[in-house]
Every structure is written in C-alpha cells, then in structure tokens.
Write a structure and sequence with these properties.
single chain, 365 residues, alpha+beta, 19% strand
Amino acid sequence: MAPSFDDSSSLYNFVVRDGNGVKGMVDLGLSMVPEAYMQPPKERIDKEKARKHEQPPIDLSKLDGPDHDQVVKEIVRAAETVGFFQVVNHGVPVDLLESLKDTAHNFFSLPPEKKAVYLTGATPSPLVKYGTSFVPEKEKALEWKDYISMQYTNDAEALQHWPIEIRDVAFEFLRTSIGMVRNLLEVLLGNFGVKPEDPKIDALIQKKMVNMNYYPTCPNPELTVGVGRHSDMGTLTVLLQDGIGGLYVKVEENIDIGQEEEYIEIPPTPNALVINVGDMLQILSNGRYKSAEHRVRTTSTKSRVSIPIFTIPKPTEKIAPLPQLVEKDGIALYREFVLADYMNNFFGNAHDGKKSLDFAKTDSV
C-alpha cells in the first residue's frame, strides 16, 4: 500500500521497514521532498557557494619511476591537509569502472522485493545488508540514499553470499583495488618509518566492505542531503564516483596560511578513483593525517551512484597512535581501544561530522 507522504510513520514503514527505499518513494511520484527528509538549514548544501577542488589527480604509475619521491610528497600532503585526493593509473581497469556504475543502476532498478530480501533481520547472509539512509531510527532527518553493503571475509564466501546481480563486478573491483590500497598505506605509514613488510599494514586493511550507493532524483536537492556530515571510520576508502558529482569535503581552518573553514566539491574526473583518509589513520598518525569530514548532495536531473570500498582493521585489533609519534609529540591525542568498540559507537549514532572521533580522544585534546 502506498504511504502518505505527510504521515511520517507511514512513510518510515514504507521506505525503511518494508524495504522500498527512497527509490520506491520516488517511483510513486513526488513533487516535493517529504518533511521527514528536510534537513535543518545548517545541514543543507549550497552548491553555488562551494568552490571546486582544483588539485589534479595523482598519477600512481609514477611511484615506480624517477618521480617517486614527488608523488610520495603529493600523497602525504593531501592526507595532511584535505584528507581526500584523486588517483589515476591506479590499476583498476577502466571498463570495470563503467561496468560497476551500470551494474549499480541495474541493481537498484530491481523490484523492491528482490532487494528487500537483504534487509536486516531478513537477509540470508550476515555479510550482505540492504538499507536506506544511515541509522534511520536515530536520525532527525533521513538521508536521500539507498545502499547495498557487502562484507568481504574470503573469496569463497563472497562468491557464495554476495547478490548474484552485482557479485562479479563488485568482487573484481575489490580484487583489483586492494594492491593500490596497500601501496598507499606503505607510502603514508612509511612517512613515519613503518617498513613495507611490517604486519601492521595488512592488519589495518584486514576487513573489507564494498558498498553500492544509490541517490534517486530529488525534486528539491537544496532541502535534503544524500549523506550527512561524517568521516569514514576505517583506514582508507576507495570511491568510484559517476559523472554527476555531488561529493563535498570540509577543509579545516588554517590561520597560518589564511585558509577559512569551507566545504569544497570533489568534481568527478574520468577514470579516476577518490581516496579518503579514515578515522583510524588520523588516530594512528596522532592527528597528522586528517580523516576528512564529507557529505553528499542530491540532484534533480538524474539518479546518481557511487561505489566505495572501505578498508578497516579486524574488530579485535587494538588501535592507538604510533609510539614513535607519541614520543616525538610528547603527548597522545588518542587513547588505545579495540576496534569493535569504536565501530559500535560509530554505527550506533546518526551522522554528526567527526564526533565519532571523540570516542578515542584523550583528555589532553
């Protein structure tokens, strides 16, 4: 039964509990964003006021040539300032990037009942979850996004449990990306003296997750958001954007260089992948690297997709700033914790900027 867009309870049941998602609501016909999705004015994204990020993509193929040291500097500087950068010549086939976008659109175009089998409480596998928004039961305003999330444990379980409609391309994306992720971590941790063979590098990316996000067309993009302000909780995120755009990253104020706090747009670049620093790298680096606060705008012209890979330590991993950095700084900005506790806090609350990092901060911050 179609919901009443004016009845928040009816709408919530239709979109969230029954698994119709934002797409199911949009398919019924909308001339106005329902009140349940209207963000407070301070959370809305003003597209006209945001400048575009002008930094060109980093060519990772140059890590193997005479420009190695220059590329390392570019990667480190991006991690220390914005926490986001784009890369090309990353090793993921270009035709696979196009297939991923097409496959995501096709999956979210399936009948609602085909997707709803993966809802929490109904899904046949704990590795796969279909949902909408982020933590809808705790959000004051819902986010304009549907998603499918696939955890990776090993090849056999991924091929057995991931949805057959998207399994092969998602698996190949992960397989062809993970070497790049390790190389980037070698660069970023090597900046602190960590050797490439150090087991810490693999421990930081032991858990992996591939998501497909779908942002249906929205009648009033200026009133809502696709994803609210947040930083990613893991180590590094690899993101494939489509050509529509809508990703905005917060640049922190820096009085020394005259930088005011602002959100900048990360424009789509053909054949590029977006890399962003997660909370774990900010903590390990004792604050040197920045897990960037970011958010996503909706669009009124065409549905948008994005496909991120999240790399995360295993839940039992103990996380703390690197000892050599604490010794150098004379202070630890973050306490030691077990990752599972951080995850429970992160996924137990609505998006609220970088507030998730408060869980690990010491009294000295």
